[in-house]
Write a structure and sequence with these properties.
Layout: H1 4-8, H2 22-25, E1 27-28, E2 53-54, E3 81-86, E4 121-127, E5 133-137, E6 146-150, E7 154-159, E8 161-166, E9 171-176, E10 179-185, E11 188-189, E12 198-207, E13 217-224, E14 236-241, E15 252-254, E16 258-259, H3 262-271, E17 277-281
Parallel strand pairs: 1-14, 8-17, 11-15, 14-16
Antiparallel strand pairs: 2-7, 3-4, 3-7, 4-5, 5-6, 8-9, 9-10, 12-13, 12-17, 13-14
Length: about 280
């Protein structure tokens, strides 16, 4: 996990307006464990980067207004994911239970930029028929929470990246459209603090350093540990990150995060955009 003190040592800028929620967002469900068994890591191929592009055509609605879903709306391109990039003028995001409905209430405010100083981007799962509202997954508990936001508060882009974490195989695979970008062995949550199942998305990128317990980068996800209420004084956020214990690859040793080799997390940090869907399954 990433404690409040550790978070303050990151090399990314942060916004003063997010100080109120700093404690809430400062922990990731990771943590070091000293149980051995060494497994060799798979080599990472060179990164394949697909540029984001603006979306003018409306997203095909997949559900009715107010209905909760965790299935991404299906666009013309089956590999395409839409991302709501919250405009700079919006510092605290307004979200609603349904279009023109009651405000949605969460345990902490959704800020832009994020706690780590990055622009806020959310995975889009639906759009209203009139195009005025977007349904997005919100990075709050419970996992998979969705709400509606005003389309005018976001610029919608798309990309073709997606990731799958297989807890049974202890492997992470990332694709750009039909093309595999990365396939690697991983460390998953131990039995007492398992990695949660579900469909999440990459919502933040935090730069660290090679000898950090998290390796050089952390890809924060929109999911949270379901075994812990708090960690190190904050909310236990799940992430994919590097490691300073490569000999543990292939084991179940973390507090819920997914650890991968440092050379692979560097590829992903340079490749996958905010809003990349991450499906965590047990095959």
């Amino acid at each position: 996990m990433l404690s409040t003190v550790t978070a303050m040592n990151t090399r990314l800028p942060r916004c003063a307006a997010t100080l109120v929620v700093a404690v809430a967002l400062a922990a990731t469900a990771c943590g070091a464990d000293r149980t051995p068994p060494p497994v060799a890591a798979a080599a990472a191929p060179a990164p394949t980067i697909a540029p984001e592009r603006a979306v003018d055509a409306p997203i095909t609605p997949s559900t009715t207004a107010g209905e909760t879903t965790t299935t991404t709306a299906v666009p013309v391109d089956p590999y395409e994911t839409f991302v709501a990039n919250i405009v700079e003028e919006v510092e605290f995001l307004d979200a609603f239970v349904e279009p023109d409905g009651e405000p949605a209430r969460f345990e902490f405010a959704i800020t832009n930029p994020t706690y780590f100083g990055n622009p806020l981007g959310l995975m889009v799962t639906d759009r209203s028929d009139d195009g005025r509202w977007l349904k997005v997954q919100i990075p709050v508990r419970p996992n998979g929470t969705e709400a509606w936001i005003r389309a005018e508060d976001a610029e919608v882009t798309s990309h073709r990246f997606r990731a799958r974490v297989d807890l049974t195989e202890r492997a992470v695979t990332v694709w750009d459209g039909p093309d595999m970008v990365v396939e690697t062995v991983a460390v998953i949550g131990k039995p007492t603090t398992p990695t949660p199942l579900g469909r999440f998305f990459v919502n933040d990128l935090i730069e660290k350093w090679d000898t950090s317990a998290y390796g050089p980068y952390i890809l924060s996800l929109s999911g949270f540990s379901e075994a812990m209420d708090t960690f190190a004084g904050g909310i236990p956020v799940i992430a994919i990150h590097g490691t300073n214990r490569p000999e543990l690859m292939g084991g179940a040793h973390s507090n819920g995060c997914i650890r991968i080799p440092n050379d692979v997390i560097r590829v992903l940090a340079d490749t996958v955009p905010i809003g990349t869907p991450v499906e965590i399954v047990a095959s």
